[in-house]
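Postdoc handover notes: sequence design on the structure in folder B. Input C-alpha cells:
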C-alpha cells in the first residue's frame, strides 16, 4: 500500500454503450430516443437507453409498455451481443494506440495505468484517448474519461461529468469534489451498505470521510470497508488474485416456456453452454446447482455433488435428476431458470484414478473426449450442431452468450 502523488490511472467509461452502439451502427437512429431490449417482447424491460431517451426521463429497467407511454417516439432495438463484443475489441485496440489497457472492467469500461513519464501529461492523454476513439471508431460512441491516483478515484472521476466528460481527481485536491457525491454514487456502496452506514449516523460523504479505516471495516463487516477507505483517501491497494469460482447461466423464460418442461429444455441448453465454457477454461466441476424462481424470486433450489466432472452426458444426467426432484416437490412452473457449475478443480490438478481401468471409467473418458470434439466442431461452425439429446432455441437467442457487467463473452460463446 502506498499513496501516489500524481495521476497514475486513466479510466474510460462509455456513455449509454448499447444504445450508442446501435446509433453508431445504424445512422438513421442518431438523434432519436432509442431503447435496447433483451428480447422482442412487450413484457421485458430496457437494458439501455440513449441520451435522447434519458433526456425524456426514461431509465434502464423501465418496462416496454411504460416506456412507450412515456415516450411515444421511442425506437426499440433488440440487443445484438456479438456485435457489441466485436465493437468492444475494436475500441480496446484504438485505446491501446495511446496507452495500454491494464484491465477490462466491463464491456464499456477499461482501466489504464500511466507510466511515470506520462503522469504530468495525464489530462492530455485522456483527451487523446477521446480523440482517437472519435477518429478510429466514430463520433457517435462517446466516452467519459476519469483520471486519479488509483483505480477507484479514476472510476469515480469518469462518472462525474457524463456524457463525454474528462475529469481529474488529483490527490492534492482530496476530498474536494468527492464531498458533493451521494454515498450510493461511490462504487461499492449499494443501497444496503448505505442503509447500514445511515444507521451508524453516516449519511453523507463528509461523515464518511471523517471515519477511520478500522471504523469503516467494522461497519462493513469485512476488509472491503477498509479497502474502500484507502481508495477514497488516495492510496493504492493491491487486491489478492481471485480464483474462478463457478460457470453458470440463467434466463428469464418466455411466457409459454414457464412450465417444468420448458424450464428443463432451457436449462439443458444453458448447462451445455456453461460446461463448454468450463472446458475451454481448463476446469472440471464437483457440484451442480439449479434454481427455479417465480416472479416473487421464490421457488426451488437443488444441487448435486460428485467427483470432478466435465463431460456433458454426466452433467446433463445430474441436471435430469435435479428436475426429477423439483417435479416431485411440486415445482410445476418457473419464471426463470439458473444453472451453475461450481466447486471447480483445474483439469491439470486432477489425479489419476486408481480404478481408471473399469468399464465405467473408460466410458466416462470417452464421453470427455467426445465433449471436447463437439466443442471444437461447434466452434468451427459457429452453431450447436453436435449435442447430447434434444436441443431447443430459446426465444431471444444468446443462450449463454449475453454480456454481463463483469463478463464479456468469448467469440466461441456465440
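Designed sequence:
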Amino acid at each position: 500500500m502506498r499513496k501516489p502523488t500524481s495521476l497514475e490511472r486513466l479510466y474510460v467509461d462509455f456513455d449509454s454503450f448499447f444504445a450508442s452502439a446501435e446509433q453508431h451502427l445504424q445512422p438513421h437512429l442518431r438523434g432519436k430516443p432509442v431503447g435496447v431490449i433483451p428480447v422482442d417482447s412487450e413484457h421485458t424491460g430496457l437494458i439501455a437507453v440513449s441520451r435522447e431517451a434519458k433526456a425524456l426521463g426514461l431509465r434502464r429497467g423501465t418496462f416496454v409498455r411504460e416506456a412507450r407511454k412515456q415516450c411515444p417516439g421511442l425506437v426499440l432495438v433488440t440487443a445484438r451481443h456479438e456485435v457489441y463484443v466485436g465493437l468492444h475489441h475494436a475500441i480496446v485496440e484504438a485505446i491501446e494506440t495511446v496507452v495500454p489497457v491494464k484491465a477490462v472492467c466491463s464491456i464499456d469500461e477499461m482501466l489504464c495505468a500511466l507510466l511515470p513519464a506520462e503522469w504530468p501529461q495525464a489530462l492530455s492523454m485522456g483527451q487523446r484517448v477521446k480523440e482517437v476513439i472519435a477518429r478510429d471508431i466514430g463520433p457517435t460512441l462517446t466516452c467519459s474519461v476519469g483520471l486519479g491516483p488509483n483505480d477507484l478515484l479514476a472510476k469515480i472521476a469518469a462518472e462525474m461529468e457524463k456524457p463525454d466528460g474528462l475529469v481529474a481527481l488529483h490527490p492534492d485536491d482530496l476530498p474536494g469534489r468527492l464531498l458533493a457525491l451521494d454515498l450510493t454514487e461511490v462504487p461499492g456502496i449499494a443501497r444496503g451498505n448505505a442503509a447500514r452506514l445511515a444507521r451508524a449516523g453516516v449519511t453523507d460523504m463528509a461523515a464518511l470521510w471523517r471515519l477511520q479505516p478500522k471504523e469503516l471495516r467494522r461497519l462493513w463487516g469485512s476488509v472491503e470497508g477498509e479497502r474502500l477507505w484507502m481508495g477514497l483517501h488516495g492510496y493504492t491497494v493491491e487486491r489478492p488474485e481471485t480464483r474462478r469460482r463457478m460457470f453458470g447461466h440463467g434466463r428469464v423464460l418466455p411466457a409459454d416456456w414457464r412450465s417444468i418442461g420448458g424450464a428443463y429444455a432451457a436449462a439443458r441448453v444453458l448447462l451445455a453452454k456453461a460446461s463448454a465454457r468450463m472446458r475451454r477454461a481448463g476446469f472440471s466441476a464437483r457440484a451442480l446447482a439449479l434454481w427455479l424462481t417465480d416472479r416473487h424470486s421464490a421457488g426451488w433450489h437443488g444441487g448435486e455433488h460428485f467427483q470432478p466432472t466435465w463431460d456433458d452426458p454426466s452433467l446433463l444426467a445430474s441436471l435430469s435428476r435435479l428436475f426429477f426432484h423439483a417435479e416431485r416437490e411440486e415445482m410445476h412452473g418457473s419464471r426463470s431458470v439458473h444453472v451453475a457449475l461450481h466447486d471447480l478443480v483445474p483439469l491439470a490438478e486432477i489425479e489419476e484414478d486408481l480404478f481408471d481401468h473399469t468399464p465405467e471409467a473408460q466410458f466416462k473418458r470417452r464421453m470427455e473426449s467426445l465433449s471436447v470434439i463437439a466443442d471444437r466442431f461447434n466452434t468451427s461452425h459457429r452453431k450447436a450442431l453436435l449435442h447430447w439429446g434434444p436441443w431447443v432455441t430459446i426465444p431471444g437467442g444468446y443462450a449463454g452468450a449475453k454480456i454481463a457487467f463483469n463478463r464479456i463473452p468469448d467469440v466461441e460463446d456465440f
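Context for whoever picks this up: The first helix runs from residue 17 to 25. Don't rerun without checking with the PI first.
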